Amino acid sequence: MYFNDVHILLYVLFGTIAAILGQFIDYSSKAFVKENRIFSKETFKEYAKTIIPNYTLIFIMVMSYIALIYKFGIYTDIDKNINLIKYMLVIPLLLCAFYVDFKEQIIPNRLNLLMFEIGIVFVVLNGFSNINIAIDMLYGMIVGGGIFIGITLLGGFIAGKEAMGLGDVKLMGALGLFFGLNTIVAVSVMSFLMGAVVSVALMISKVKKSNEYIPFGPFIVLSAIIAIFIPFEIIFNFLMTIFTLGMYTG
Known about the structure:
With about 250 residues, this protein is mainly α. The protein has a domain at about 110-250. Helix content is about 75%, strand content about 0%. The chain has a two-stranded antiparallel ribbon. Strand 1 (about 1-5) and strand 2 form a beta hairpin. The N and C termini lie far apart (about 40 Å).
């Protein structure tokens, strides 16, 4: 049986891998929170004592991998699988960033560096087949990080404090390597829009006070995942409709 020209057994195989990765993300995230080494016997023994299946992460990972396979397909030619492989690598890292930033209000440098290194590998791989794509990915890194560092500096100048954590800046720079110029701008806009809506809702409901810190990493992660699965044209039209109050017609 095939779905979108991919045999069902491949969905089962990658779903199983995703389930294992979901639990590994739980393990890695807790190691990051405690500032422990991930590949360490001591860290694993400590985790094993209180291990509980994280069904939420497992479910998200399985659904994500199945959706990726359905969208991109699997081909015998490795060059045609480059986007599938790229996003299969970045989604676990995004979920880990979400978890740690939500819990500790920080995105670890090790995590951002790993994402950046993987992104550079894909820039090089794309450069062999299409140099324009590689250049666009580098522009994405510069603009993605540049937007957020600009906001951080502006916030420091106006309010006397950081408006954006440096972990968010590094995360956006790394993601720019995966998404390229246009999409990383869309991710930036979506994350600010989500952040504004949720922040206002939390303050109105008195869950958060106006001077309390709200981690921004989760909004970046959610926006990036949306950008993976929804075509840029749909995202662009949606954002333009919002910001032109419905006057944009495409």
